[in-house]
Amino acid sequence: QAQLVESGGGLVQPGGSLQLSCTAPGPMLTGQGMGWERQAPGKQREFVAGISSGGMTRYIDSVKGRFTISRHNAENTVVLQMNNLKAEDTAKYYCYAGALWGQGTQVTVSA
After folding, report:
1. Closest CA to 40 of 92, 80, 97, 111
2. All residues at 6 or more sequence positions from 22 whose CB lies less than 8 Å from its CB, including other chains
3. Model confidence over 3-46: pLDDT tens digits?
4. Are 64 and 70 in contact, with CB atoms under 8 Å apart?
5. How far apart are CA 84 and CA 82, in angstroms?
6. 109 burial class (0-12, 13-18, 19+ CB within 10 angstroms)?
7. Residues in CB range of 47: below 8 A, 6 or more apart
């Protein structure tokens, strides 16, 4: 059952930027890692980026240097800044926080 709310997806041209936000309905899950996964049509779901409760980040190799994940505990929010987007970034992006998941937001990169 989805309990997180994502926003910020949409259609963008190659080389463009989007910012995805994920908000928890209540206080941030202290001590929980947060992050994003994505699933493209016909492909397996894959990890994209994660951030620990202490702020350590990790990324899938294909987005390193282009995507930045950050968490904002006061706003119960985790943000994924995506720059220099490529067609292969097209997917539905899902936010997670501990064991909670969002319903996903679509990102389409196309000319």
Report:
1. 92
2. 4, 5, 6, 7, 34, 36, 77, 78, 79, 80, 95, 97, 102
3. 899 999 999 999 999 999 999 877 766 678 899 999 999 999 99
4. no
5. 7
6. buried
7. 35, 37, 60
Q: In angstroms, rounded to a whole number, what is the distance separating the alpha carbons of residues 1 and 111?
A: 34
Q: Which two tokens stand for residue 105?
A: 């937001």
User: What is the DSSP code string of the chain?
Assistant: ---BEEE--EEE-TT--EEEEEE-SSS--TT--EEEEEE-TTS--EEEEEE-TT--EEE-GGGTTTEEEEEEGGGTEEEEEE-S--GGG-EEEEEEETTEEB--EEEEE--
Query: Which tokens belong to 6?
Result: 């994502």
